[in-house]
Design goal:
Two copies of one chain form a homodimer.
Chain A: H1 3-14, E1 20-29, E2 34-43, E3 46-51, E4 58-60, E5 65-68, E6 70-75, H2 84-92, E7 96-101, H3 104-110, H4 112-121, E8 128-133, H5 151-154, E9 163-169, H6 172-176, H7 180-188, E10 194-196, H8 203-212, E11 216-217, H9 223-231, E12 235-239, H10 247-257, E13 264-267, H11 273-279, H12 282-291, H13 296-302, H14 305-310, E14 327-330, E15 338-343, E16 346-347, H15 360-363, E17 384-389, E18 396-401, E19 405-406, E20 409-410, E21 416-422, E22 431-437, E23 444-448, E24 457-461, H16 464-477, E25 480-485, E26 488-494, H17 506-522, H18 531-537, E27 546-549, E28 552-555, E29 560-561, H19 564-567
Parallel strand pairs in A: 1-4, 1-5, 6-7, 7-8, 8-9, 9-10, 11-12, 12-13, 17-22
Antiparallel strand pairs in A: 1-2, 2-3, 5-14, 14-15, 15-16, 17-18, 19-20, 21-22, 21-24, 23-24, 23-25, 25-26, 27-28, 28-29
Helix pairs in contact in A: 3-4
């Protein structure tokens, strides 16, 4: 807001000169916990006042509930696979007018260029996008990321008006046994919001983590964990995305125990476009919170003023003079179905999003060395480590057994497939190879460049030719998802933006995803599971028990790469 | 906190290695509203954890209540008349471990030098002093201050770690009809905390004021005013200082109506040293809040986490791992009498304060032109404007009447005395002269360099010789308070620090104040009134109805100097 804008807003408030009046609303006041029947006057993107107003441009709320625009307290936009402007379009339709985004995924691929890209692409869109700088790039030292971001790299971002803190400190080991790099970051941000990510952390380790600086957590899996963390001064994001469970029981216990909700926020973290379209976004979390006994006003505060206060967003999270006119009109405070969404003082109209910028640094992120035909040869002798998928879970188990072989090389059979992680950032030619059970691909391969958190290229299949064809296909389109069978590409979703995001409209992304699933089913992956999500997490060396990175098979329980001697 | 300090604190939390343990406390948890029986581990000025701890250095709380250190949400340290280190000593004894200070008074005398001085003098003291930059220097254009502070002057302070926002915007007219200078300041601080000061402001003007940026108010005189301002998004400081009334009824109504207290803070604004010594400081406000029906935990939050959140003081206002170990042990949560005060992890020991720095820019603030013997001649003809004091109030009334004269000049008699405001910053020689009723001085004069807000030298008396002697005495000692009679100085309190603060120990300041009152009584000022406070506010051109500045008599209702033609 420049000076003349500020002056005009002040003057228009003093002289009752709005550009838009929302008449006859039940206005939710997050400061007094009241619902007030009133009109809301808006001008220049700002609320001028709540009271009796009229002007030439009126919208009749007809007694519906006018809430502050909802804020997602923690989200990775990249995981939607849509360009930020298109992601914005989908969530705005559900009443989410601001997000606290952590561009952790694109930063792991493109480094600070990725952060600049996300800031640039969100500068002029109707969704307010605030950024927490990714704290863990690379996420671990057991894989090769596209970039490394140090505290010094972060400094230039700190004066950016939408950069507000340090993103989720997933590496709680580094935070609590402070090493050079993480300590630098924690120190740099010590007076600003720092997000935590500390599943199951308790007792002395939790205390040390709090001393280190993180003051939020979105990973709680029980009410007891919530209680301990709130007592220790953390604010809790109640997370309800695509792959999260257990939060509703936590909500119920919060309500039952009367735990103050002032320290609670809500977030999606990762939620698929189709799920957002179908059930909602933050408004869906409010619906579930109310269904589980949390009073509607408290639920709304978790998605508005509580988030704004935590992240120091002055003028967000409330409907009051001087606040940004981000609002959503709900039919009721039970289902939270939006009637009209206002952003920056205007009625939000879906489908008006801007086109992606084709930044060559971001669009050319797949850098593979040439492959030799024998590059996937996997010599076997004696027992081999097997990565066994657990149905409907992200966790895996480590088995060791003898496997089928031919000429001393692994030969996929009996439900065992080959899995390969190609380092795809620096064209090093490095390939981590392993054996997987639980994704019984027949006569084909699937592959992706979305592979948390370093986003190397992951391919799985029962024959090397299809696997290599899948890699070729992804290399050609700048990354994405692909299904190949018998020398042919069956389905493909190009994700040219860092190998993570599509530049297509949302409808086409969702359609492509459905084709991908059908193609995967045709080569033996059973209906009802999403092999692409499974693959995307197969390289994340923080989820038990076993992973595979470009450096090889990795035992998460020992935090070490698996050597041949470990299994024989 | 430097990096090695941070690392040590993290490590000591992880390994349960405290330097001090407070055993067997009832720990007030402002996050969960619980009171938990526990030990508190402290090291390096930081709370490491709350639980079961022991170490070589233990303090047994014996079941007393351990609260976060109390925070005064808005105070002018200068008005205590003590040097900041000595002010700190007094308030720390009452459990106040941090203050949000607005160095408005010294800034009006010394400009940015005054702010640097206050920052410097509070750098190493055990009280945490955060600064809001004074927004109104000068306070009005109807008087001559020692300095003018523009937005550009403020910019260098914004990177100071203890400068946290813009101080009370008293000039609500400038804020709501935004002019160049105030608009610059509001724009500069638009994303940071801005304190308001808006007595009785309501409706459209209040809305415009909120749009302008201030988000707190400490001037509410009724519950209805509180409610309107909270609804509009302001946080309210419940102020209980030396000269404030009506706040207890507001507290009672807050409790009765169940108005959420999350948006409430407490402050003293101005409270005399003797009053603090006698009844308490922030702890006294908590006592009155509880006596008026506000739950103790809510009252405590008003003085701790609510203030810390509003002013973005990460690590303040709570007892939790990573928070600054500012704590106070109370016998009960009714009287709030402190047993032990901890600041920065140590037991506070009174009387250990540092000596004032004799900065020559600050210590030589009284710059008067030489006085001619006839400089106080006040020609009179016809009716004259009279400033009539209202007993026990700061407001005044404007009378007009014929007054005693001799050779065409005013001759004090019949309870009328002469009052003179000497411009004392720039040696301009300018003197504003007037006639006052209600302070019946006989055979003498009293004078002060404490004169809100420009702090010119104000003298009142019934003869010019004593008035001029009083001026000479204050000039000689660098400012202060003085009582003169029949050519002799009866009592004096030197305030050499900007003409506002003593560099004496607190006991001696209080003793001198008592002598001053006795001396004033001896020249006719009746017991029970404090003529020095009255004089100090006589030049403040924002309190109705009539004031006097170095520019002359001033009609506050018309916001204009009084011309001869106005009364005849």
């Amino acid at each position: 807001m420049d000076k003349s804008h500020l002056r005009n807003s002040i003057t228009n408030a003093a002289h009752r000169n709005p550009a838009l009046v929302i008449k006859n609303a039940r206005v939710v006041n997050v400061f007094t916990d009241e619902i007030v029947e009133a009109d809301v006057a808006v001008d220049g993107g700002i609320v001028l006042g709540v009271g009796k107003y009229s002007c030439a441009n009126e919208i009749d709320a007809k007694g519906a509930y006018l809430c502050p625009g909802l804020i997602d307290g923690h989200v990775h936009i990249e995981s939607s696979m849509a360009h930020p402007a298109r992601f914005a379009d989908v969530v705005l339709s559900k009443g989410t007018t601001a997000v606290i985004a952590d561009p952790h995924e694109i930063a792991n691929v493109c480094g600070t260029n990725g952060i600049y890209y996300m800031l640039g692409e969100t500068e002029w869109i109707p969704l307010s996008v605030f950024m927490m700088l990714p704290s863990c790039v690379p996420a671990t030292s057991f894989e090769t990321s596209g970039a490394k971001i140090t505290a010094r790299d972060m400094e230039p971002f700190m004066s950016h008006k939408r950069v507000i803190g340090l993103g989720e400190v997933m590496d709680y080991v580094a935070a609590t046994t402070p090493n050079g790099g993480m300590l630098e970051k924690l120190h740099l941000f010590r007076k600003l919001p720092i997000d935590g990510h500390a599943p199951m952390l308790t007792g002395d380790a939790l205390n040390a983590y709090c001393v280190a600086g993180p003051r939020t957590d979105h990973e709680c899996s029980s009410y007891e964990e919530v209680l301990e963390k709130v007592r220790a001064g953390m604010r809790i994001h109640l997370r309800l995305g695509s792959a999260t469970h257990g939060i509703e029981e936590i909500m119920r216990k919060i309500a039952e125990n009367g735990l103050p909700t002032r320290r609670m926020m809500v977030c999606t973290d990762d939620k698929h476009l189709e799920d957002i379209r179908r059930e909602g976004h933050i408004n869906y979390i409010l619906k579930r919170a109310v269904a589980n006994g949390i009073p509607a006003i408290d639920a709304i505060k978790m998605a508005t003023i509580n988030v704004a206060e935590n992240y120091r967003l002055k003028g967000y999270g409330a409907i009051a003079p001087g606040c940004r006119a981000d609002m959503v009109l709900f039919k009721d405070l039970v289902d939270f179905e939006p009637i009209t969404v206002f952003t920056n003082g205007r009625v939000f109209v879906p489908g008006d999003e801007s086109a992606p910028t084709r930044d060559p640094d971001i669009y050319n992120s797949v850098h593979l060395a040439p492959r030799r035909p024998d590059c996937l040869d996997l010599p076997v002798s004696g027992k081999m480590p097997i990565l066994r998928l657990v149905p409907n879970e992200l966790i895996t188990e480590l088995d060791t057994e003898e496997v089928p072989s031919e000429n001393g090389l692994f030969r996929p059979a009996n439900g065992l497939v080959k899995i390969a992680v190609f380092e795809r950032h620096h064209a090093s030619g490095r390939i981590g190879l392993g054996i997987m059970r639980g994704m019984p691909i027949r006569n084909g391969a699937i592959a992706t460049t979305v592979g948390h958190d370093s986003h190397n290229l992951i391919a799985a299949g029962d024959n090397d030719r299809d696997m290599l064809l899948a890699v070729d296909a992804l290399e050609a389109c700048g990354g994405g998802y692909v299904v190949v069978s018998e020398g042919k590409v069956l389905a493909k979703l190009a994700l040219p933006i860092a190998g993570l995001m599509s530049d297509l409209p949302v409808d086409r992304i969702i359609a492509a995803q459905k084709q991908m699933l059908a193609a995967a089913e045709s080569i033996g992956v059973k209906s009802g599971t999403d092999p692409f999500i499974t693959l995307s997490f197969i390289a994340l060396p923080v989820i038990p028990s076993v992973r595979i990175t470009d450096l090889g098979m990795f035992d998460v329980t020992k935090m070490a790469l698996i050597a041949e001697s470990d299994v024989n």
